[in-house]
Automatic annotation (TrEMBL):
It comes from the Bacteria. It holds the Pfam family DUF1611_N. It comes from Parasphingorhabdus marina DSM 22363. Residues 45-122 form the D-glutamate N-acetyltransferase-like N-terminal domain. PANTHER family: DUF1611 DOMAIN-CONTAINING PROTEIN, GLL3100 PROTEIN. SUPFAM superfamilies: P-loop containing nucleoside triphosphate hydrolases. Residues 129-326 form the D-glutamate N-acetyltransferase-like C-terminal domain. This is Uncharacterized conserved protein, NAD-dependent epimerase/dehydratase family.
Length: 334
């Protein structure tokens, strides 16, 4: 399991596309307390601008490549910044497809300095196969009608409101951005399929009866590319509660023309059926409705309609937060 040391210095690169720094933006939004500053130009998140040496002097432990690009590689014009961070004694965390350790100069510099290179998107040694053995503690898993509908954002919003409500709770990250936000986790899309369920059992082990894990979901059972990882998560999570994430107005599965978004009732029923293999008592806890396409002015009406239809709280985490679900979790209806 990846474990990152905070605080972070967020690297924003040297380009001007604001979409490229969405990972850094997510870290700064959800974990501002571990973000000492930012490095790079011209983009900014409003954090203090710092060179790696200065950030290290202020206590930064990890230089985070908090940005993406279309090729998934480490551009040459980033390498000097990475080497500067290593020379300052910082670890480096990378969510891109190319490994830091595959860049010879970076690998040698880290070996010389004794710093760690965290290639988040890649597998990290052996993980066990799933056992299906019942374990203590309580778990919430976000699932979806498709990928990119808000499963990570929903899980983080739930964890935030549960923490505010006094719950004993942890967010469990399963993707590279979530891992960088949480500082720990397992990139399940890098795990061999036979071991996905076991890796999630390892990520969310037995816990105290009043402890909750909020697990970041991936993919969808109805996405022909990513259904496998979704099923492994359902079995390994052994969830007590599922939150169904859906984007209002989406008609087809992302990047899969001819594959319609599933009927919401069918998707809920199928996810519950699959989850019952390892937890027969699993239930639908809420619906998280992403209203990006239809606009915030329709969010209240659509959520009210789904609440009546499914007898479960419905919220857009961007607009409403997750307090409605958390309040019902604390005081379930009779």
């Amino acid at each position: 399991m990846h474990d990152l040391q905070g605080p972070y210095l967020l690297f924003l690169g040297h380009e001007d596309n604001p979409l490229a720094i969405k990972t850094s933006r997510g870290i700064a939004q959800w974990r501002p307390e571990i973000c000492i500053g930012e490095h790079g130009n011209p983009l900014t998140l409003g954090l203090p601008k710092m060179r790696p040496e200065e950030a290290a002097q202020h206590g930064a432990k990890t230089f985070v490549l908090g940005l993406t690009n279309t090729t998934g590689d480490i551009p040459e014009n980033w390498q000097q910044d990475i080497l500067e961070a290593i020379d300052a004694g910082m670890d480096v965390a990378n969510g891109l497809h190319q490994r830091l350790s595959d860049v010879e100069e970076i690998r040698k510099a880290a070996e010389t300095k004794g710093t760690a290179l965290h290639d988040i998107r890649h597998q990290f040694g052996s993980v066990p196969i799933g056992t299906g053995v019942a374990r203590s503690g309580k778990r919430i898993l976000t699932v979806g009608t498709d990928c990119s509908v808000g499963k990570m954002y929903t899980a983080l919003a739930v964890e935030k409101d549960m923490t505010a409500g006094g719950f004993n709770v942890d967010f469990r990250a399963t993707g590279q951005t979530g891992i960088l936000i949480a500082g720990t986790g397992i990139p399940v899309d890098a795990v061999i399929s036979d071991y996905i369920a076991g890796s999630v059992e390892h990520l969310c082990p037995a816990a105290a009866e009043n402890h909750w894990d909020v697990i970041e979901g991936q993919g969808s059972l109805f996405n022909p590319a990513y259904a496998g990882v979704s099923l492994g998560l359902l079995h390994g999570a052994q969830a007590d509660v599922l939150i169904m994430c859906h984007e209002a107005g989406r008609k087809e599965i992302k990047d899969k023309p001819g594959y319609p978004v599933p009927d919401l009732q069918d998707c809920i029923d199928t996810n519950l059926k699959m989850a019952r293999l390892t937890n027969p008592r699993v239930r639908l806890g809420a619906i998280s409705l992403n209203c990006r396409l239809v606009g915030p002015e329709k969010a209240d009406t659509l959520c009210a309609e789904l609440e009546e239809r499914f007898a479960a709280p419905c919220f857009d985490p961007m607009i409403h937060g997750a307090a409605k679900f958390v309040d019902e979790l604390a005081c379930p209806a009779a």
